[in-house]
Amino acid sequence: MPRPYLLIAAAAMAAVPLTSCKAPLAAAGGSASRASNAGVAIASAQTGWSGLPSARSATPGQQQTYNSAMGSLFASLRAARPASTWTGTQSIDGWQVTFASPGQPQDTIDPATCTEIAVSPALSGKDSKQLPPEGFGLPVIMKQEYDRRKAASHKLFPLNGRNLPATMTAEFTGPRAVTVTFHNTWTHSTATVRGAQRPLATDYRTPIRRSMDPKFLGEFSLKGLLRPDDTLNDAGLYVPFVYDPTKIPVVFVHGLNSDPHIWEQAMHEIASDPALRGRYQPWYFLYPSGLPIHGSAARLRRALASAIQHYDPNGTSAAMKQMVLVGHSMGGIISRLQVTDSEDAIYRAYFRRDIDQLFASADAKRQIRENLFFEPNPRIARVVFVAVPHRGSGLADLRIVQWMTGLIERAVRVDQFITEIARTATSTLNPQLMAFKDLGARSVQNLSPRHPLLLAMDQRPVEVPFHSIIGVKQAGKPLTETSDGVVPYTSAHLDHAISEHRVSATHSCTDHPEVTAEIRRILRQHAGIR
């Protein structure tokens, strides 16, 4: 790694540990020393800033001097005062330091809203997957913790908080006056530095990795499968970065016994492409995968409606009318129901009589209408299916799998309407359900090729342009005899797809380079990017 980046990292990390925005403890008399250090660092930053040519390109040496000064400035400011106080204009060791406040939330990030600001580990060179960032300024990751009390006004705020990519720059506006800005680099990759528009040093991989933390999100995988009711309150749609009304949401939906962290590499594919980053914002749907498929699909539908009502109540955002869903495995079936006019096909998969002829409570009939009738969401313009068992998987019918399915607790809050009717009028149910334990109400049972839900869905067309990405393990065999180890090709294939990309991969393929590259290609096509 080039020596200047080591100097930047050392300068940024020398003063205090960068794991918290809390003020470090100091011995008596430490305040004056910290202020003095800040004054020296600000003066050094001014020298680096003054060394940049005004309104024109800088040499690599001038850029490195400025960036090294930003690292020292950041460390000294943190040593002097906790970042939670970085707001407005403050006097620090004879300097007037102004922390830029966001004109628009998507332009800059207010450091006072963060519980942690950490220098990008890419500067240290310890991450073999990351090259040292090029550009101006100090790349940082700004952590905003989840606060349940604020959840009502911060819709779609992730449960593990937001890890926002940002870059710190400093502009000197007078003899002893400086403005420090934390640029939101998901929306802006350039900034004005000493009169010239310059590229910012950026790190996207680290904030995405922390946002999609498998240790945190992975807790929902098995628990959500075996005890879905216990995680139902946390199910929902989440936006890991700051919402931008000008960008198209890409909603990633995980599959059975899984969680959203599987989409980390696909999100990085968006972030690493400036054209895609400028047009898209990644969202994800977290849900307990033990729920019956119709229950999860109904929850996604409600979550999308709530997000649209919150962010675009007047329907003025063109981007919100171009949503893309990307679903893996069972998540693809859930996504498909968002763009399907089911008419009464899904309902008939469960009941033989018309709904007004059912001997059921008004609440049960309301739940039936919410869970078994679907219409295409007009805001969704495209769907990408990744290894999706549209016609089920024979593994769901294996005896060992059926036995293990019995370990899954029934989601009482989701399918109680079927239980209620079964207790009083079994004759109203579809007889095909009788072949399944507990009427086939668990998600694993829904994935049987014999389940009437999938049989009904197979008769309904997808109402928007869609693409299939299919894993094929057995090279050289006829397609009809191949699978990804879980889903047969004949189940994953759909006629009328805009494209079908076959990958030599197993079922867990969301991070496969060919899969993420194909998602990237589809998103570029959707946005009209050449």
The major pleated sheet works out as: 7 strands, mixed
- The tally of beta strands, per DSSP, is 15
How many H/I helices?
Answer: 18
Instruction: Give the strand content.
Output: 15-25%
CATH fold call of the largest domain = Rossmann fold
How far apart are the first and last residues' alpha carbons, in Å? 33 Å
Low-confidence stretches: 1-32
Labels describing this entry:
alpha/beta; 530 residues; elongated; seven-stranded mixed beta sheet; disordered N terminus; single chain; 2 domains; Rossmann fold; 15 strands; six-stranded mixed beta sheet
Explain this structure to me?
There is one protein chain. The protein is an alpha/beta fold and 530 residues long. The protein has two domains: 3-203, no CATH class; 212-527, Alpha/Beta hydrolase fold, catalytic domain (Rossmann fold), CATH 3.40.50.1820. Helices cover 33% and strands 17% of the residues. The chain has helices at residues 3-14, 30-50, 60-80, 205-211, 214-217, 219-226, 264-271, 274-277, 293-311, 330-336, 345-348, 362-372, 399-405, 412-424, 443-446, 452-457, 489-492, 513-527, and strands spanning 88-92, 95-99, 116-119, 138-144, 162-174, 177-184, 190-193, 196-199, 236-238, 248-253, 280-286, 323-328, 380-386, 466-471, 499-503. Strands 9-11-10-12-13-14-15 form a seven-stranded mixed beta sheet, sandwiched between helices. Strand 7 and strand 8 form a beta hairpin. The relative contact order is 0.09.
